[in-house]
């Protein structure tokens, strides 16, 4: 069988389909050689073993894959890794300060703001991004038109939280406690469980 002739000037496929890049993940540089079609999510999960960010819809609709890229929340399933060479990426695995969880993680535990836990890493990363957006005075769709940045910062109540978190879906419908946990974290409050006992632990194993 005759092979298909290659176009004049065409570059062999094995030289065009992979590139070497460096992602700064949770504070550490990670150099990878990846297929150009590899998403940031697959780079994290399949190549770096960081399985906190979940592959839910794989279409940017559920928010389970949310991570922080250069300090801003993003759906990692929609982003090509090669387009983020040099970017700083923070996943749920990199939020804790040593053995101390991030304040948003602590608030989620205290408020029992999870059930199966599948969406929780994305919810937490998105919440951190949303709190940062409010701190910077960025308005949302429900912010009063013409509101000043200081007004935005003071108005981060349940309505604002629900709007800003609307891209993160919870199949277990734990929204009431998620909103409360984000409100606690944003206000700098250490939420306390209403009943006696130790901290709530996430259910389930590796997903």
Automatic annotation (TrEMBL):
<keyword id="KW-0408">Iron</keyword>
<dbReference type="InterPro" id="IPR036010">
    <property type="entry name" value="2Fe-2S_ferredoxin-like_sf"/>
</dbReference>
<dbReference type="InterPro" id="IPR006058">
    <property type="entry name" value="2Fe2S_fd_BS"/>
</dbReference>
<dbReference type="Pfam" id="PF01799">
    <property type="entry name" value="Fer2_2"/>
</dbReference>
<dbReference type="InterPro" id="IPR012675">
    <property type="entry name" value="Beta-grasp_dom_sf"/>
</dbReference>
<feature type="domain" description="2Fe-2S ferredoxin-type">
    <location>
        <begin position="19"/>
        <end position="95"/>
    </location>
</feature>
<dbReference type="InterPro" id="IPR036884">
    <property type="entry name" value="2Fe-2S-bd_dom_sf"/>
</dbReference>
<dbReference type="Pfam" id="PF00111">
    <property type="entry name" value="Fer2"/>
</dbReference>
<protein>
    <submittedName>
        <fullName>2Fe-2S iron-sulfur cluster-binding protein</fullName>
    </submittedName>
</protein>
<dbReference type="InterPro" id="IPR052914">
    <property type="entry name" value="Aldehyde_Oxdr_Iron-Sulfur"/>
</dbReference>
<dbReference type="InterPro" id="IPR002888">
    <property type="entry name" value="2Fe-2S-bd"/>
</dbReference>
<keyword id="KW-0479">Metal-binding</keyword>
<dbReference type="InterPro" id="IPR001041">
    <property type="entry name" value="2Fe-2S_ferredoxin-type"/>
</dbReference>
<keyword id="KW-0560">Oxidoreductase</keyword>
């Amino acid at each position: 069988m005759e092979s298909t002739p290659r176009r004049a000037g065409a570059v062999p496929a094995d030289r065009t389909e992979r590139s070497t890049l460096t992602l700064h993940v949770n504070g550490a540089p990670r150099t990878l050689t990846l297929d150009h079609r590899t998403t940031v999510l697959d780079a994290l999960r399949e190549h770096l073993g960081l399985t906190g960010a979940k592959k839910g819809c794989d279409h940017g609709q559920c928010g389970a894959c949310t991570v922080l890229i250069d300090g801003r929340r993003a759906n990692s399933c929609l982003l090509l890794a090669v387009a983020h060479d040099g970017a700083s990426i923070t996943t749920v695995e990199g939020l804790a300060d040593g053995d101390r969880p991030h304040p948003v993680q602590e608030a989620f535990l205290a408020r029992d703001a999870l059930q199966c836990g599948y969406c929780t890493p994305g919810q937490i990363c998105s919440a951190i991004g949303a709190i940062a957006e409010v701190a910077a005075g960025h308005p949302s769709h429900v912010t009063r038109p013409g509101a000043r940045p200081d007004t935005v910062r003071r108005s981060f109540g349940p309505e604002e939280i629900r709007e800003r978190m609307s891209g993160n879906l919870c199949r277990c419908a734990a929204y009431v406690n998620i909103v409360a946990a984000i409100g606690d974290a944003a206000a700098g409050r250490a939420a306390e469980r209403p009943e006696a006992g130790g901290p709530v632990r996430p259910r389930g194993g590796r997903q």
